[in-house]
Amino acid sequence: MKKIAVILSGSGVFDGTEIHEAVLALLAIEQQGASWYCFAPNIDQYQVINHLNGEVSHEIRNVLVESARIARGNIFDVATLNINDYDALLVPGGFGAANNLSDFALHGSACQINEDVKQACQAFAQANKPAGYLCIAPTLIPQIYGPGAKATIGNDPDTAAAFNAMGGEHIQCPVDDFVLDQKRRLLTTPAYMLATNISEAATGINKLVRELIKLA
């Protein structure tokens, strides 16, 4: 059975992992006959958002602890991720990817990636193991794969421009498809960067995961 490492960034679209994307991806992994193993950085969230009213909540939450909600407690510190144990990587989106895994939401093309996350993702890249990034998570790719990496966040012009400014090559893509960088064995899909409902998000995610498992 192929084993897929999944890096989460909290719990909730506005300050952590996009939950629909994560659950759809975990389900798709199982439906393709593979198994998933969740990881997250053991750090405080950049901020906490009240998902009922969209306001900032002045409290401190831990990314690993919050991510455990999605993984039903079956999750580990990303610093312990040994890529020799896994066949592929998957990173869902949500603002946590841009605020907790990195600071892209604050600094755009000048962003930095959390060091433990960066080391884990680069290890998959250097080992030529396939990886899939959903939604806004592809903004991590240029710093992980270097200049020329092909990926999509859909068609948002500002995010695409930042991706290109970091050295990547952004490719426009509809919500129901994915982009494959064959050379790097790298897959991306817009998911909720474009999706207006969970069914639309599922279409692209299912296609990406199917190809990811095939490449693994």
From TrEMBL:
Function: Displays glyoxalase activity, catalyzing the conversion of glyoxal to glycolate.
Biological source species: Photobacterium carnosum
Lineage of origin: Bacteria, Pseudomonadati, Pseudomonadota, Gammaproteobacteria, Vibrionales
Top-level lineage group: Bacteria
InterPro entries given in the database record: Class_I_gatase-like, ElbB
Family stated for the protein in its record: Belongs to the peptidase C56 family.
MF terms in GO: lyase activity
PANTHER family (alphabetical): ES1 PROTEIN HOMOLOG, MITOCHONDRIAL, GLYOXALASE ELBB
Range of residues in the leader sequence: none
The reaction(s) this protein catalyses: glyoxal + H2O = glycolate + H(+)
Keywords (A to Z) from UniProt: Lyase
Name of the protein described by the UniProt record: Glyoxalase
